[in-house]
Amino acid sequence: MKRHILVIGAGFGGVWSALSAARLLDKHDRNDVDITVLAPQAELRIRPRFYEADVHKMSAPLGDLFASVGVHFVKGAANSIDEQAKTVGYLDESGQPAKLQYDRLVLAAGSNVIRPNVEGMQQYAFDVDQIEQATQLERHIKSLKDQPYSAARNTVVVAGGGFTGIETATEMPARLRAALGDDSEVRVIVVDRGPKIAAALGDGIRPAITEASEYLGIEWVLGATVASVDADGVTLADGKRIDAKTVIWTVGFRANPLTEQLTGVRDAQGRLHVDNNLKVFGQSDVFAAGDVAYAATDDLGNFAAMSCQHAISLGRHAGNNVAADLLGVEPTPYRQPKYVTCLDLGAWGAVFTEGWDRQLKLVKQEAKDLKTQINTIWIYPPAADRATALAAADPMIPVA
C-alpha cells in the first residue's frame, strides 16, 4: 500500500511543500508515496498584492502544475486534525464532511488578519487579507463615484501602520483618483498606535516612508487606536472623530486556528514551534510551513516572519524534509539568514533594505522596479513543466 503525504493549504508554504516533496521522491525514484494538497481552491492567491487594483487577477492556477509533478489536489476546507488517528477532516466542495488519512502531514494553512471586537468592525471595516475581502473593497472604491460628493466620500482611513497598512495607504491616492477623477481632492489617513511613523519598522526605513507619505499627502494620526467604526467613519479611543466612507483594517495577524488542534507549543500569534527540520515539537509525523510555523532563520535569534519571502523557503524545506522523514534519508535543515524588505510606496516608488536592522539599499524608482519584479515574477509558481517545477523546488535555492 502506498504511503501518503498530506499538505493542508495552497498558499506559498503549501505549494512549495508539495513541489519539494515531489522533487525528493523523484530524486530517489520512488513511486510508492502519494502527495495530496487539500485547499479550498486549486490556485495560488498572490496575497502580497491584495492592496493593488484589479485584485481579481491576483491568483495563479495550480491544476496543471500539480498534475505535471504527480501531486493530487482535493478541493475542500480543512476543519479538524486528529493526530492520533492521523486523519484530517474537511468540508468538500458540496459542503459535505469528509476525511483524509495521512502518514505524514504538512500544515501550511496560513494566517488571517485579526478583527477585534470593536463596535462596527464586522459591518463597516474592509480589509485586504483574502482575495474575497480585497475584491469587496475594490467594488466599494469603484462605487464611490455614485455617491454624492462629501469630504467623507473622498477619505480613506487605514487602521495600522505596519507593512500591509503602509502599502495599502500609499496605493490609495491613485486608486481613489482612478475612481473619482484625476482632479479629485482625496484624503488618506493612517491611524497607528506607534509614537512615530512606521515606529515598528526601524530608523533605517522610516525616512523613506515619511518622505513618501509627505509626497502622496498621506496623514498619520499617531499614538491612536480605533474605538468604533460606522458607515460614516471612525471614532478613536481619545474621542476624536474622522469622517470617512472607507475604513480599512490591517492590524495584526494570527496563524490559522488549526494549529490549536495539535499538541505543541505556540507563539503569541498561534504559530507552532518547529525544530530545524520544521517538524512540530511534540509531533512525530507533522511538519509546519509558512505562517503557521515559528521557525528560527539563523542562530542569532531571528525567526521567520509571516511573509511570502519566508513561506517559500519554509515550504521548500518542509516538503523536502517530510518526504525525507518518510523515506528515511537525510533532511535539509532550514536556514534563511538573509532578510530583506521591499516596501511598495505607491506613486513615490518603493524602499528596499537588507538585514533585520533594515539597512537602506534602494529607494524610489530603483526599488520600485525591484518590487515590481518580485510581485509579478519571483513569487509566482513555476511553469507546469515537470523538470522546471522540480528544479525550482530545491530547498538549497536561496530566497531574497
Automatic annotation (TrEMBL):
GO molecular function: NADH dehydrogenase activity
Limits of the FAD/NAD(P)-binding domain: 4-312
Sorted UniProt keywords: FAD, Flavoprotein, NAD, Oxidoreductase
Gene3D superfamilies documented for this protein: 3.50.50.100
InterPro entries recorded: FAD/NAD-bd_sf, FAD/NAD-binding_dom, NDH-2
Protein family membership: Belongs to the NADH dehydrogenase family.
Name under which the protein is recorded: Putative oxidoreductase
